[in-house]
Structure formats: C-alpha cells, structure tokens
C-alpha cells in the first residue's frame, strides 16, 4: 500500500535539524556561541542599542535613522493603551490563573477591537505588530496590579519600553540603571531563530490567519515548561541549595541521579550561550549594587561545578540561568518571568510572520504511519 511506504522518507524527532524556512532575521552558530540579528552580533546590540532600535532592525531589516527611530517609537508608545472592554475584562478575572493564560485571553480579546482586524495587507500587519508589541507589557502589568487589588498604572509616554513596564508594575519610576539593564535583557530575548513558539506562530500565519491569532499560538507554545519558564525553576533550584558551600553536593547528587540542572544545556549551543555571558555580568552587577550576593554566589558555584563535570559534553549555562537573578533584583515577580520573555520575543514572532507570509506556503509536513493495516471492522454488538 503506497501510503504506508517510508522509502525515501526521513524522520527527525522534534524536527531537529530540519530546515523549515529561510530567514534573514537572526542566525545562531551553536559551536562558536554566536547570535546575530540581521547580521549584527548580539553583544554589539546589547552594548550600543536598545529595545526600540533593535526591534526596528528585526521588523524592517536595517537600523533606523534618527527620524525613523523617533517615528517608530512614537507609534510604539502611542499604542500601549488597551481597549476599554479588555481593561474591564482584566479587572474581572480571578487572581490565580497562569499569567500566560491571561496574555492569550487578553490579546485575543484585543483583536476584536483592532482597527485593522479585517485587513491583511503588509501595512496593516505592521500596524498590528506594533500594537501587539506595545500592548503585551500593558496586559501583563495590568493583570499583576489587578490580582493585588491595586489600581492600574497608566502607561507613561515619557518612558521607554523597558522603563515604562517596570513603572506600570510598581507605580514608581525605576532607577535609570535598572531600566537600562532590563532594556538589555529584552534585546537579548527578541529573537532566536525557529524556536518552538516562533514555529507555532508561522504555522498559524501560513494558513493566512491573522497576526493576533499567530501570536496567541506562540504565547500558548511558550507557556510550556520545556520552552518558557526555566528561569523560574533556576531560582527555585538556587533557593533549594541555599548556600554556596552546599552547591557542589547538590549538583553532584543531581548528576548522579540524572536529574536535570535547570539553566544548563541547549538544543543549539554547544558552548556558553552568548546571552548568558551578558546576563551573568549584569546579575553580578545588580547583586553588588544591592549588596545581596547570596543567589549569585550560589549560581557561580553551580556554574563552576557544572563546567568541571559536564562541559566536555557541550553543556553550558543558557540564557535562563542568570536572567532570573536579574529580574528578581528588578522587582519582577517570579511568575511573570515567562510573560516578560513574551514581551521581548513578540518582536521576533511578528518579524517572522511578516517575513514568511511575503512568500507564503502553508506548512504541511508528512507523518510516517506505523499502525496496523487490513483490520476488519467488527459491528458494535459483536465486540467483546
């Protein structure tokens, strides 16, 4: 039977190393530990750029000139407010859902009121992308305030993307240095090739569904613990270890029992994740600034032991290992770490949707059937 044959077909579990798209947005050299956005090394962007400029780069392909950047940021800052019905919805929600479920719900709700909801041309898609990028931080901050029984803090048009989010969470303008570090953390998370959530967005977009639906798909994918949320569990692990002198015993026991060490290893990188190098620097800086080195000293000891024991296997710290420490010092609640991931990665999601749908082809992979054949149908009354 022809449909059963596997001749000439290959199977890659999890689509590992399968090329499913061609993109000029970002690229990874896992062996050398290099990540580039539109050809520019992530270290250069972290050092010299910011969220607005790097987002423009990913969405449009080039660094903006001064006028283009001012116009883009004005559009972004002006799109932060949510439709009134979405705000009322956030006020009425129970206080205990997973925050990623709130992002899905609120963004899907916002789609109903989007001015371009019935338009699918490229300019409309770009306007939708800007609104979604601007609204995810507002959704996250509003929900966090709502579950605390506090009044919503409206967006401040005088603050940039990173500083405004921290302000809306707490009601206080953040320390400029802290806001800059958060801005850098967002830049580091903007895109990372065809990861699971980006692929999910593209699958949805490839059916010619709308931008909001594609991003809701991506958010649902990011919610999974194998994709987002690892930095939460890194902090849990560090708290469980408790003190630097206990780290070696903890790690050696975990390795012996074949338990996963959170924040280590990556499907692509076989050396230290370049984003982890940068976040490590800022985790140390914030620990010293706030005179609290407990977590960073435990983390450094864990890294030391892991480097000695498993680096020969290509297992090194990934982006999640130090990001949780950074976010903790910035006052971001632990269960919002994955929404913060989405707040950054939505730039990459929308950029990939814009790029892929320009030469769209619906995704339709094949499956190799390995079930039974030639089975007889047995009427219900004759089944045992």
Tell me about this structure.
This protein has 384 residues and is mainly α. The protein folds into 2 domains: 26-176 and 185-223 and 342-359, Orthogonal Bundle (Citrate Synthase, domain 1), CATH 1.10.580.10; 230-329, Cytochrome P450-Terp, domain 2 (Cytochrome p450-Terp, domain 2, Orthogonal Bundle), CATH 1.10.230.10. It is 54% helix and 3% strand. The chain contains 16 helices and 3 strands. It has helices at 42-48, 51-60, 66-78, 84-92, 99-111, 122-147, 161-170, 176-188, 196-205, 211-222, 230-241, 247-256, 274-289, 294-310, 319-329, 337-356; strands spanning 26-29, 34-37, 40-41. Strands 1-2-3 form a 3-stranded antiparallel β-sheet. Helix 3 (66-78) crosses helix 6 (122-147), helix 8 packs antiparallel against helix 13 and helix 13 runs parallel beside helix 15. It is globular, with a radius of gyration of 23 Å. The mean pLDDT is 94.
Distance between the termini: 30 Å
Mean pLDDT: 94
DSSP, total strands: 3
Spatially, the strands of the biggest sheet line up as 1-2-3
* Count of separate DSSP helical elements: 16
The fraction of residues in strands falls at: under 5%
Note the topology:
Blueprint: E1 26-29, E2 34-37, E3 40-41, H1 42-48, H2 51-60, H3 66-78, H4 84-92, H5 99-111, H6 122-147, H7 161-170, H8 176-188, H9 196-205, H10 211-222, H11 230-241, H12 247-256, H13 274-289, H14 294-310, H15 319-329, H16 337-356
Antiparallel strand pairs: 1-2, 2-3
Helix pairs in contact: 1-8, 2-16, 3-6, 4-5, 4-6, 5-6, 5-10, 6-7, 6-16, 7-8, 8-13, 9-10, 9-16, 10-16, 11-15, 12-14, 13-15
